[in-house]
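Thread: Modeling a multi-component assembly for a lab meeting

Hi all, long-time lurker, first post. My supervisor asked me to bring a structural picture of a complex we are working on to next week's group meeting, and I have zero experience with this. I have the sequence lines for every component (594 residues in total). Could someone generate the structure of the whole assembly? Inputs are pasted exactly as I received them:
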Amino acid sequence: MTDLPATHEPAIKRPVRWHIGVFLLPAFIIYSAIMVLPLIETLRLSFYNTVDGAPAFVGLANYQVLFGDARWAHDFWNALVNNLIFFAIHMCVQNPIGVALAALLSTPKLRFAAFYRTAIFLPTLLSFVIVGFIWKLILSPIWGVAPWLMSLVGTKWLFAPWLGQSGPALIAVSLISNWQYIGIPMMLIYAALLSIPDEVIEAAEMDGITGWSQFWKIKLPLILPAIGIISILTFVGNFNAFDLVYTVQGALAGPDMSTDILGTLLYRTFFGFQLQLGDRSMGATIATVMFLIILAGVSFYLFAIQRRMRRYQF
Amino acid sequence: MSTRARTSPVRTGLVHLALIGYTLIAVFPVFLTVINSFKDRNAIFRSPMQVPLPSTFSLVGYKTVLGQADFIHYFQNSFVVTIVSILAVLLFGAMAAFALSEYRFRGNALMGLYMAIGIMIPIRLGTVAILQGMVASGLVNTLTALILVYTAQGIPLAIFILSEFMRSVSDDLKNAGRIDGLSEYAIFFRLVLPLIRPAMATVAVFTMIPIWNDLWFPLILAPSEATKTVTLGSQIFIGQFVTNWNAVLAALSLAILPILVLYVIFARQLIRGITAGAVK
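Re: Modeling a multi-component assembly
Sure thing. I ran the full set together rather than chain by chain. Output:
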């Protein structure tokens, strides 16, 4: 992949199409130099370790440590399971609500639609520094905002310092993340819904299909590609998640590692934290495993799901 | 409530009710932060839900923030990095998306897959090698380093989203342009780009957010005082003033403001594009 096949492809009965190369080249160069090559270097590092003070090729020894050593394996599986829960909560809470909000927003001639859209998208704009700190304050028993709000609906007895309890902490952090990112599925689905031509909707109405059944039978099939995109973005973003756990719970992903996900595990391993020294080789090994998990999920999407989706051209 | 044909007032009312309900959930934490940033310390703890009254109004938090850190300068750095990166991502991303969605050539699918890898793989996994490269080229502690990284980070998603949209641009239109003697470059810049403007605005918004809010690369590649971004600046500030709630709430409120302004600018373009129905 070091050269552009496009530029020296003699198309049948056509001159060399240089413009394809010109269109591709800037993106290709920046992307390859800053992203792909460093990633390859990281994957390579996972097969190396420091032996007698010098870097040496160790084959799969790092992987044997990661999966074989009881302490490493425990941390790794803990983080992976937490990551899957984190992902499941996003798919079950964030994306359906996002689609529902987009459907509501696309109601024809809805007043204040721009206002709602801006307001609901607001949390997505905020940095993890802001989101993490605001929610820590709100959920803090010291400040008492959350218990007070719950007392308004008579459920104050349900309140607990969730972020400090090892069971609910992961759910709480996931829901904070949902709160922050709901704007993304909403916007993508909203744009997809708006791009459905009026004629299609009018034809449906002529046939007496309106309201909810119109959404389920006409609009939903048309926006399936967009739903596919948000699912895969959620899947990938889930492995990129690090910042929120870091700002809410710290690099140790407390309490008792109950909110530890692969991102925080990688950070601690790669760069070290407190007494633990940074280990580049083990960090690269975890990064490689994450790479493979992500690759498997995305390949599944591209080959098994996206291929089967119908595309409509209006 | 306006009642047009086909929409009953009850239904419209329910739609508004649901949207208002979620809007409250979305806005409340931000609102809470902003109102409390204008109160004195006692009032923050005693009655967090109350808007600032003349008796509790205080700007002490803002005075601390503006006296301690060079926030104006941090904002400037963040603006430069974010805007230059977005422009680069949009231009290069749209060009590549056009090449991939418009032309059939050998290696097309492979190139598309190669570019898509970047959506899936967090660029952070390569941080050590990126840092080595930046050190070698003397770009550490420059805004250029951040711009390069963010451009590389944004391009894959831009290509992915934009090529989805470009496939929906009518072939007849492009072929009509070709018959009229337009070059491929003219077709791209004059016919296709204006049509996918709403998609460009979407990409701009999605590219902007992770760039503006990123903590990782400013910390590693450009932590110097001269190149600090506002996210890094406020993180360090909050770390130092963690018990001074006035200052923390004021810093949070200040950090929210500019991203909101940037968003309003882009959202207008987004909405204009969508309402013009350009995609159809």
